[in-house]
């Protein structure tokens, strides 16, 4: 369908088909297989945002093209792709592959993505579910690039001080990421957010458990949530999957296809 608009080797991604298991930490799969170089970055960026491909039949080979393209951009450490990738977040609210993989793609590209993630996180034009992708991305960035961990924690923590219609839910996402990062230094800000009713209690209602997970206190015999923070992650993941942002591009069939491979938000 769109293959005439792309040239080799990028066009080969449209016939490569399904690749469910992709390890972002292993050798550069796409670079090695297709001989992709930095000169192919503009075409790969265009493929990521190609509405015709996102609207392709769920059983087609072409529908996988954008997935292969953003993985390739990660392997190429394509800093010019940072803004185009982030701009797609609110257009693909139901594309589980994109939601799951974007943080890892940006972490592959590197800390150069941090300023754009900070700006997206601060933009009230996007709802909490969209901006949670920036939260996840900063978390993964901090994990994979320890030298910028403190910067990422600071960006996440400072959001507690801001208020917009989606801030309570967004703050809940931020609490989960700070716990994952064992950000003990953010404990006072997290506590203040709970005390100031700046955390959505339907999403995250257990300051006691957060303290336990941060190693700040011993668990009581009977916690409100005895299974720990992991069950809260599962709860917020389920809520997120029910949240709609905008009617972005991507056919229902395409969204269903990615939904069939939906992974847990946290591992």
From TrEMBL:
It comes from the Bacteria. Pfam families: DUF1186 (PF06685). Residues 239-267 are annotated as: Disordered. Gene3D superfamilies: Leucine-rich Repeat Variant. This is DUF1186 family protein. It comes from Laspinema palackyanum D2a.
